[in-house]
Amino acid sequence: MTNSYRLIPNMNILLEEFKDYPPHIVKEVSNQILDLYRNKIKENKVDFETKDILDDISNALKNYNEFSLKSTINASGVILHTNLGRAILSEKSIERINEIARGYSNLEYNLEEGKRGSRYTHLVETVKKVTGCEDAIIVNNNAAAVFLMLNTFCKAKDVVISRGELVEIGDSFRISEIMKQSGANLIEVGATNRTHLFDYEDNITENTNALMKVHTSNYKVIGFSESVGADKLKDLAKENGLYVFEDLGSGSLVDFSEYGLSYERTVQDSIKDGVDLVSFSCDKMIGSAQGGIICGKSKLIKKIKKNQLLRAFRVGKLTLAAVEATLNSYLDLDKAKKDVPTVNMITMSLVEIEQKAQKLYELLSKIKGIKLSIEKSYSKVGGGAYPEDVLESRAICIDNVNINKLEEHLRLSKYHIISTVHDDKLFLDLRCIFNDQFEMIKEVLKSYYE
Q1: By the 8 A CB rule, do 373 and 360 touch?
Q2: How many CB atoms lie within 10 A of CB 133?
Q3: Of 99, 153, 274, 446, which is most buried, counting CB atoms within 10 Å of its CB?
Q4: Could you tell me if residue 141 is left (phi over 0), alpha (psi between -120 and 50 degrees) or otherwise beta?
Q5: What are the C-alpha distances in Å from 161 to residues 214, 350, 421?
Q6: DSSP-based helix, strand, coil % in the chain, nearest 5
């Protein structure tokens, strides 16, 4: 046992061996690994060489500064996969982020007047052109947008909302709790499945300041149900001197009903119906970076800008760069379908997907021992949008191995390929896989089979 300790190199040797790393990191990592080997010796498990120790330290040093946030290949078929980071940024957005990040910018500087400006001016003109609103402001997410609308106009005042619209969004965040935290008094009306105009009307008092609509996003009430549209609420609000606010949740600037999805209310629809303020997410159906936009009446947006809490929810220059570039693409819908990945994947034709599937099939079929087939699959939009809708797609199916082990192999590979498993088969849905990822998938599968 005494001689076995000679296998353990001293720290001076290790510092010289790994001199490309900071000494304090070499010491920290080495001490942890050396302790493991000393314990092995104590337990008479001397089944190693000095080289094994050096290899372990080398690997640990390489992983020391490894990033926690990693890129993945989304083969799940879910376009706005919340767990995988939702929307993919467009190339134009990435170029703008790179341009703005590499130097200084006029984030809060008015170039025309040569004095301090506001970060909240940068998106306004584009949002106005795309939605038809009078004014707009961006904050760090849609929950913050809802909070600010209510905190600014309804603190200690009543807000009337249908019980059927008190949704819970991801990670147990409930719209009702966000509304209460804003300081507004929440007045629930109607039933879970049916709310009528008279339910709102009967609950308007001297303390009421707004009627609110909330898009139910990730669920839908079907069958014996009824709700009141924002257009009818607007008439009731006008009669009583109230505001109408609408939270569109995932939000959308495109009517996707002609691409196989059911009709969903767009931001433009809300503005046309005369809703005073509309809020929606930037990183879901819009297809950009995380953020929340409030748009609507100019006089109301100006009041929100004076709310002291706005500073707690403001966005940085990189978010502004990404969202502005994305929204700019919506000035031409054909351009958006091509440039914005979210829109592109939703509107992608089955013919295009089949061509991708055939190309990947031919590439993977060269792997010795693999058994493949192209199968019909169904993609989802995700991100709390279109909960009942599916888009027909195509997937590469693998079924002649231990599927659970293969799924783990793909997931833990250096490319982190996220697949789905059902009916004892592994599926790689092509809708969200890009052509330049085909070789990566082949490399990982080849390492499993060969």
Answers
A1: no
A2: 24
A3: 153
A4: beta
A5: 8, 40, 40
A6: 45, 20, 35
Q: What is the spatial distance between Cα 386 and Cα 363, in angstroms, rounded to a whole number?
A: 33
Would you say 259 and 123 are in contact if contact means Cβ atoms under 8 Å apart? no
In angstroms, rounded to a whole number, what is the distance separating the alpha carbons of residues 51 and 110?
62
**Which pLDDT score, from 0 to 100, does residue 219 have?**
57
Phi, psi of 323, rounded to the nearest 5 degrees: -70, -40
| Dihedral angle sign, alpha carbons of residues 125, 129, 134, 136 | negative
Please compute the mean of the pLDDT values over residues 272-284 and round it to a whole number: 96
- Supply the DSSP symbol for 367: S
Tell me the one-letter amino acid at 419.
S
- Mean pLDDT over 122-126 rounds to 95
Whether the CB-CB separation of 70 and 427 falls below 8 Å is answered with: no
Name residue, tokens 């600037």. Answer: 253
How far CA 313 is from CA of 106, 146, 148, 169, 449, in Å, comes to 20, 11, 9, 19, 50
Q: The tokens of 21 are what?
A: 């790393």
What is the C-alpha to C-alpha distance for residues 193 and 162, in angstroms, rounded to an integer? 9
The tens digit of pLDDT for each residue in 191-223 reads 878 889 999 999 999 999 999 998 876 656 665
Pairing type for strands 158-162 and 208-214 reads parallel
What does the alpha-carbon distance between residue 91 and residue 153 come to, in Å, rounded to a whole number? 38
Strands of the sheet containing 243-247, edge to edge, are 135-139, 292-296, 277-281, 243-247, 208-214, 158-162, 185-189
What's the CA gap between 334 and 345, in Å, rounded?
Answer: 13
Q: What contacts 445, CB < 8 A, 6 or more positions away?
A: 364, 367, 370, 410
What pLDDT, on a 0 to 100 scale, did the predictor assign at position 67? 85
Task: Give the list of residues 6+ apart from residue 71 with CB closer than 8 angstroms, or none.
Answer: 415, 416
CB 291 within 8 A of CB 282: yes
d(CA 228, CA 125): 31
User: Which 8-state DSSP code applies to residue 32?
Assistant: H
- 435 vs 42, more confident: 435
Q: Report d(CA 239, CA 185) in Å as an integer.
A: 21
Residue 409, classed as helix, strand or coil, is: helix
Whose tokens are 């005369």? That residue is 274
Residue written as tokens 């584009």?
126
First to last CA, the chain: 40
Structure tokens at 187: 């007045």
